[in-house]
Amino acid sequence: MDAENQVNRADLDQLTGSAVIEFGASWCGYCQEAQPIIAAALIQYPNVKHIKIADGKGQQLGRTYSVKLWPTLVYLKDGVEVIRIVRPRDAKIIAAALNEIDFSQIN
After folding, report:
1. Cα distance between residue 72 and residue 20, in whole Å
2. What phi, psi does 75 have (nearest 5°)?
């Protein structure tokens, strides 16, 4: 997992626009399995920021979002959580949630 751990909660709360925060760990099997479907869904939403956070022991950011399982996708619209998906297994579910935060893809 490419860590962008220099990001803090205040930074995320101040984001404008649409974003998906992905909490996980590089050694996590569920995280590794989910990467292709997350990538497949996100490629259709170039306006959505994708921020990967390497979570784990001693990492406080995940705790501020009450992350308990990996991967957890937290969907933000203007810094406010709109939807959360834990251990996604289907790109369609990820895309449906992306529609909630990025209206540019709705026909």
Report:
1. 10
2. -95, 125
**Domains of the chain with CATH codes:** 9-86 (3.40.30.10)
CA 41 from chain centre, in angstroms, equals 12
| Separation of alpha carbons 50 and 85, rounded Å | 14
Look up the pTM and report it: 0.90
Pairing type for strands 72-77 and 49-54 reads unpaired
Question: Which active-site residues does the annotation give?
Answer: 28, 31
DSSP 8-state code for residue 60: H
The 10s digit of each residue's pLDDT in 13-57 is: 999 999 999 999 999 999 999 999 999 999 999 999 999 999 998
